C-alpha cells in the first residue's frame, strides 16, 4: 500500500461569486513528484495556499501529512517546505545569513543550523559566494538556494509554486535534478507549473482548467488517453473540451 501524504475531498475556494477551485479531489503519495499543471489563473496557486494552511477553504476538506487543514494548520506548516515563484529569499542578506535565517524559521537548533549551513554551502558550490548578498547572485543560483532552504529541515512534503518561472531551459533542467534528489530521499514534491514539458518529469500530474481538475494520471497514460504526442496537446484537448461545455 502506498502511503498517502496529501488527501483532498471536494476542496473548494470562492471569492464572492468567483470559484477559484471547484471541488477538487485527489491523493498524493509519499516520495511522489506530483505535478499540478494548468494555465495562469487556473487555480493552482489558490489550491496550494489552502494545502499549505495559508488560506481557509470555502468548503471541502484535506489532510496534509496526516494533519487536518482546518484544525491543525500549524502542524502542517512544521511538516512542509514552501518555495514561491519569487524564491522567498531576502536579497539584502548574504547567502549564509539566508540559510541560517530559514533554519531558525523551521525550528532547527543552533548546532543543526551550523551543520546544515556548511553542508549546503559545499553542496551548492557557493563557498566563495557565501558572504555575498543574495541579490547579487545569478537567477539560477538563487533558485537552487531557495529550494535548498525550503527543505533544510527535511520536511515530509515540499510545495513548489512555479519554481522554474523566468529561467532558461538549461537552468530549469538543472533544477529538476535537485527535485529528483529530494524525491529519492523520500520527500514528496508538489509542484505547480504552466510549462507543459515539465509534466514529463513528474510521476503523476493533474491538469487544472478554470478551477476544475480535468485529468489526473501519469504523463504516459494521459498521452495515450488523448492520443497526443505531447502534454501541450493533452492540455489543448482538455481546454477545448472545457470550452465546449461552457458554450
From TrEMBL:
SMART domains: AAA. Transmembrane segments: none annotated. This is ABC-2 type transport system ATP-binding protein. It comes from the Bacteria. Keywords: ATP-binding, Nucleotide-binding. Residues 6-235 form the ABC transporter domain. One of its GO terms (molecular function) is ATP binding. The keyword RNA-binding does not apply.
Amino acid at each position: 500500500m502506498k502511503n498517502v501524504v496529501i488527501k483532498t475531498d471536494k476542496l473548494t475556494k470562492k471569492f464572492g461569486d468567483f470559484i477559484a477551485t471547484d471541488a477538487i479531489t485527489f491523493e498524493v503519495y509519499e516520495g511522489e513528484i506530483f505535478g499540478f499543471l494548468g494555465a495562469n489563473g487556473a487555480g493552482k496557486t489558490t489550491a496550494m495556499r489552502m494545502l499549505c494552511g495559508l488560506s481557509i477553504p470555502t468548503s471541502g476538506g484535506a489532510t496534509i501529512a496526516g494533519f487536518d487543514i482546518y484544525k491543525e494548520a500549524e502542524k502542517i506548516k512544521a511538516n512542509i517546505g514552501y518555495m514561491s515563484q519569487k524564491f522567498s529569499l531576502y536579497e539584502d542578506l548574504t547567502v549564509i545569513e539566508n540559510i541560517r535565517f530559514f533554519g531558525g524559521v523551521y525550528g532547527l537548533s543552533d548546532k543543526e543550523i551550523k551543520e546544515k549551513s556548511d553542508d549546503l554551502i559545499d553542496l551548492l558550490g557557493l563557498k566563495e559566494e557565501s558572504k555575498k548578498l543574495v541579490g547579487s547572485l545569478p537567477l539560477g543560483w538563487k533558485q537552487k538556494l531557495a529550494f535548498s532552504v525550503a527543505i533544510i529541515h527535511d520536511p515530509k512534503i515540499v510545495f513548489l509554486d512555479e519554481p522554474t518561472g523566468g529561467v532558461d531551459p538549461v537552468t530549469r533542467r538543472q533544477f529538476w535534478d535537485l527535485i529528483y534528489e529530494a524525491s529519492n530521499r523520500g520527500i514528496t514534491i508538489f509542484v505547480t507549473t504552466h510549462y507543459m514539458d515539465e509534466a514529463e518529469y513528474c510521476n503523476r500530474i493533474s491538469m487544472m482548467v478554470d478551477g476544475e481538475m480535468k485529468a489526473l494520471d501519469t504523463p504516459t497514460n494521459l498521452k495515450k488517453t488523448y492520443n497526443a504526442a505531447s502534454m501541450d496537446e493533452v492540455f489543448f484537448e482538455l481546454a477545448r473540451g472545457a470550452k465546449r461545455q461552457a458554450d
